[in-house]
Structures are given as C-alpha cells and as structure tokens.
Design goal:
binds magnesium ion; 36% helix; 17% strand; Rossmann fold; globular; binds adenosine-5'-triphosphate
C-alpha cells in the first residue's frame, strides 16, 4: 500500500517519536519500519506482546537477506514483530556498521513495502548526502520531514528541501508530495503558519501538516517507560491529528488520479 518516508534535516527533532506516534494513532493497520542507517530505536522503545524484548535479528537485516533472494518472493510480514501496543514493527539496525551488508537491498525496500497489505511508515533517520536510506525516500509515495521551529532547525530544513527538489524532484509540482511536522509546544500556534509562509515564499511546494506536541509524558508513554493511554496525552492527540491529515491527504491525491 502507501509508503510514507519520515526523516530530518539535522539534529534529533523527533523523527522516531513522530513515526511511533503516527503508528499508534493511524486510522488503519500500519507498519512502523525502522530503516535509519545510523541505527534504530524501535528495538529499544518497544516490547513484545508477552512483555519481553524484541528479537534484534528479525527485521531490516533478515528482510535485506530475503530481498537479495528476490523482491517478488519477499514477504514483509515474515520480518515483522508485533509489539505490546499492537503495532507491527520492522526492527532496524543495532549499529550503523550493519547497514553496509544490506547493499542493493536498500533500493528494493520501497517495492517490498508497497507489496504489503497495509500502509508503511518508514523512519529514514537524518538525511545527509549519500545516506543509505535515500532510496526509501525517493521511492516513497510521500515524504514527511520533521523539524524543530528554531532558526537553525528551519534553516537546515530549507536547505535539505531544496536539495531534495533538485535533482530528486521531491516536493516539486507533480512529484512526490512532501509534508513537514514541527515538534513544538502544544501552545505554539504560530510556528506551523510561519513556517508555511516561509516555505511558500521560497517556492517550495511543501505542506506543513501540523505539530507533534513537545510532551515528555506522552513520549515516555509511547516508549513504554510510563503507564498511561497514549491517545490521551498531548503528543497522542497531536499524533492523531497528524495521522488523520496525512492518511486523508494522500488518499485525496489518490482519488484525484495522482500517485
Ligand atoms: N514530541 C516530543 N516530546 C517530548 N520528547 C520528545 C519529543 N520528540 C522527541 N522527544 C525526545 O527527544 C529525543 C530524540 O527524539 P527522537 O529519537 O524521536 O529523535 P530523532 O529525530 O529520531 O533522532 P535521531 O536522528 O537521533 O534518530 C528522545 O529522547 C525523545 O524522547
Ligand atoms: Mg530517530
């Protein structure tokens, strides 16, 4: 189904947190795929249904080995693990050194994800030139960049968006749609509109989707470090709004005869 790639331009603005929040609030079954070449967090922030640790050997690494045997025979479902929250996850790398072993499999991941029966949210990590997860981004149906609203966060985002448009075509008219999520206080009603204005003035065809509330309690509940109902937290509520907007936005484009 639909593949969403999530990434950041610089720093750690909360990509993995937004990806997990979206997975926890998505309006339909969804897979959270950890494809951050720097090493993933899904393994450390989730537990099995029985409460134990996830298996580090079943995930991106085992999928990469299967992809090398043939994309059409590869079933993503065989490499997923169900977590205590009910989410299906693809566990990522435990160390960046493991990424080299995936080789050409990186480029096949969008096709394997698209073959799956549910939408896939792929956490691609931080985008630096030559990053291994770039093919997931360029092959996705939609890209979501996560940023903080401060000047340096926005400046790096702008530069990265420019470089994604030229020559990759991401965020250009008719190209892969690009959205932006701002990690900020739930009281911050200005940043999304200000950022949208700035990006529009730059001629970047990018939609600011909204905020992921900066919320320690919500982040702790999401990571299983604290008990509570995630959807009732500030982060959970903002995650639900983002999930609905993102899922509906892409479906609208589908209906309009787009991707
Ligand atoms: N919305 C939020 N509210 C509270 N804490 C947050 C939020 N988003 C992220 N954090 C915290 O900030 C830290 C970094 O978040 P996260 O791992 O999601 O960032 P990232 O962009 O994926 O970073 P990296 O590039 O290192 O993978 C974590 O400790 C996380 O709990
Ligand atoms: Mg991350």
């Amino acid at each position: 189904m639909t593949v969403f790639a999530l990434a950041s331009a610089k720093g750690s603005p909360g990509v993995s947190t937004v990806a997990a929040a979206l997975a926890a609030t998505w309006p339909a079954p969804v897979v959270l795929a950890d494809v951050d070449p720097a090493g993933g967090d899904v393994l450390w922030r989730n537990r099995t249904v029985a409460g134990g640790p996830l298996d580090p050997d079943r995930g991106l690494l085992s999928l990469g080995a299967a992809v090398r045997r043939g994309v059409s025979e590869t079933d993503l479902a065989e490499h997923l693990q169900q977590t205590a929250t009910g989410a299906d996850v693809l566990v990522g790398l435990t160390a960046p050194e493991q990424g080299g072993g995936l080789g050409g499999a990186w480029g096949q991941l969008p096709a394997v994800f698209r073959q799956h029966r549910t939408d896939v949210l792929a956490d691609c990590g931080r985008l630096v030139p030559g990053t291994s997860s770039m093919p997931v981004l360029t092959g996705a149906d939609a890209v979501v960049m996560v940023t903080r609203p401060d000047i340096s966060g926005v400046a790096h985002l702008r530069e990265r968006l420019r470089s994604l448009r030229q020559p990759l075509g991401l965020g250009s008219p008719g190209g892969t749609p690009v959205g932006v999520v701002v990690t900020t206080s739930y009281r911050d009603t200005r940043s999304p509109a200000d950022l949208q204005q700035l990006l529009d003035a730059d001629g970047l065809h990018v939609v600011v989707l909204g905020i992921a509330a900066d919320d320690d309690k919500g982040a702790a509940v999401l990571a299983g470090e604290r008990a509570g109902q995630f959807r009732r937290t500030l982060l959970g509520r903002s995650g639900l709004q983002l999930a609905q907007r993102l899922a509906a936005g892409i479906r609208t484009t589908d209906a309009a005869g787009g991707r």
